[in-house]
From TrEMBL:
Pfam families: CarbopepD_reg_2 (PF13715), OMP_b-brl_3 (PF14905), Plug (PF07715). Keywords: Cell outer membrane, Membrane, Receptor, Signal, Transmembrane, Transmembrane beta strand, Transport. Residues 143-223 form the TonB-dependent receptor plug domain. The keyword Oxidoreductase does not apply. Residues 1-21 form the signal peptide. It comes from Pustulibacterium marinum. Belongs to the TonB-dependent receptor family. This is Outer membrane receptor proteins, mostly Fe transport. Residues 805-821 have a biased composition (Low complexity). It is a multi-pass membrane protein.
Amino acid sequence: MKKLSIITSILCMLSTLFVAAQSGKNIKVTGTVVDEDTNEPIMYATLVLENAETKDVTGGVTDMDGKFSVDAPQGTYNMRIEFISYKTYRFPQQELTSDKNLGTIKLALDVAELDAVEVTGERTSVEIKLDKKIYNIGKDLTTQGGTVSDALQNIPSVSVDVEGAVSLRGNENVRILINGKPSAMAGYGDTNIFSQLPADAIERVEVITSSSARYDAEGTAGILNIILKKEKTLGLNGSIQGTVGAPDNHSLSANINLRTNKFNLFTTTGAYYRNSPGEANYDNNYETGSFDRIRENRDYERLRKGFNTNLGIEYYLTEKSSLTGSVFGRWGENDDESNTINDRYIGTDLNSITSRIQNEGQTSETYQGSLNYINNFNDEGHKLTADLQYSYDNEDQPTTINEYRTFPSDSLIDRQNIFQVEKQNEFLFQADYVLPKGDSQFEAGVRINLETEDTGYNLDQFNQETNEFEVDELLSYNFDYDQNVYAAYTQYGNKLSKKFSYLLGLRLENTQMKGSVSSPYYTQEELIDELDFDFDANFDKNYLSLFPTMNLIYEIAENENLTLGYNRRINRPRGWFINPFPSRSSRTNIFQGNPDLDPAFSNAFDLGYLKRWTKFTLNASVYFQRETNSFERIQDETGQTTDDGISIIRSIPVNLSSQNRIGGELGAMLNPTDWFRFNASFNFFKFKTEGFFNDVDYGAESTSWFGRFSGKVTLPAKIDFQANGFYMGPRKNSQTESEGMFSLDTALSKELIKNSLTATFNVRDVFNSRKRRSYTVSENFTSDSEFQWRKRQFTLSLIYKFNQQNDHNNRNKNQGNPNGGDDMDFEG
């Protein structure tokens, strides 16, 4: 509907210019279009003039004040005023012999169309398309003043754990894209960056569980495609948001656009200062080592401060082609301090108490430049797009560690200085060609994605005899990792009837993974011999694979449909899963990457159902996924002990033979009145993992579920109240059982100046209950733990908007995605 309106507007303007150039005396038709209920002007409404005899069409669109002025030759015309979500206003058989003023035309809302379209101004709505679900981020009060991580927590099918890891249907192997492409804004797989970007920058989130061949095959769980805002309104417009919070959560951000008929300037810029206190508790019991039990209490202070900006310009080369250039920059400083107290027991007797203070700093800078070219050969969707993108990220991470014995006597145990530098470079080229013909559409494209990641690590160990720091030459190293992906795809879609549509695709990808270790103190051979890794730290692997996709949709009725999808996908290990050198965040519990990791592959089926009523929408699906060579993080003993006799336990990712996952999800949206809205979703899944590592069976079988609800009500004095609840059910893998977890966010909002200034007060994690509680059993130890990443938080936000359209005019605005996604969507 939106595309048709835009095409009509363009044709009308072109026809006006053509007719004016070839005729004699023209008649001027003027008037004003307003909303029937509010009397506010409607921008971009279309005036269509169709000559009753020749059937020639001319016309124009309204300006920011709802006014139009159109020139047309003398004659008899059938005239109409059109705008999305409104009833068409008609003027049949109008004789134009002199200038004519139609006066003020009041358009009434088309309720039937609104039911199908979904009003996005007041809530997060859903659209079902052939290969994805689209959640339009509306006035979600609980994310005002929040971050991208906060917004993702409110998306059905998506969960964000206490450490910020994003899962889709309970599976962490999810690919995150920004505007349809890999991006430095997505943090190179480190989703912690989402806690630094404002939620207000998001226009919508596409949940792609059955992706088409257009998207890269990464992520066995599916894809989350985050589309950023880019205003379509002429003139200068935007919003400014300021937030204060406790614990410290202060930010200032702006989304500003300047749009003319020739170009569009846009920016999202923000600065932030946040402190996220957290805590962790561990109770470990050992079968071996000097101690039988160690109780560990850890307090965190995580200070984040920085500045980020995304600045771009879209330049219209012709009426059908444009070039968009953008630059993204992020500069941040982190200061993490953890204080760990260990009570160490022999039998039931307290033997000693230690205190470990770790200060980890981080200075980071990220740059990204991108170019996007679009050439629309016609108005029917025949087009060519090309993208070029380069990203660079540099992080310096100095760390100091001081550990003391405080009972029964005071003494120094360990001091370390760590210097780590990570540099990442990514180059991306992508081209896509779309050729529609009637109800069918053909697509083809190529993508080249080249990534390099270099890690330099230096460890200085304190020598208590000399009272000086000395370089630990064996654990001072460099690790270089390259991942290059070359891909080509084609897909074809068609409508076999008014009710049945399909989209078939095939993608070919070649993945190259290269890694090598080196040291300034040893030759490569000497280093590997000294470290005695139980895997090959130098590798060069290539994988050539085909990835078929299929998406079907059957329209049972106008507001009811069935969808069926199949796709094959890959999960490539990221750099920190590959890096063979152990982390130093703890002397006794370390994480170590595994260079022997191979990609995992999955085959997934998804059957979905959607039904819309006047005030109620139901969305349901069942899915099955079989993953081979799946990743599993296991814990085992290294066989090493600390200087004071504590066994060192490592966590390491390994390939297991397979994992089967079956589940179902149900979502509902209820909008009985203008003052009350409610939506809820429920996701249940069961998985079974099979596989051995070092002759130990790590097979496991578990069921779990998670659910969320969101309710919004308008109170007296036009104060809006919203509550979002989330519950993650208990789950387990081969070694660890995790308890269920509930959290609740609430918000109050009041519009202080109509259509301009709004104040919002948030309480995130009202009951301070967002904690991960788990119990791990291994051959020689057990661990009972509780971890809380961020404690309860209060925020107050002020949002000022200027020169933005009213809510009626915002309906269905910006639904197109210039940077990614399929045009042949066949909406349900």
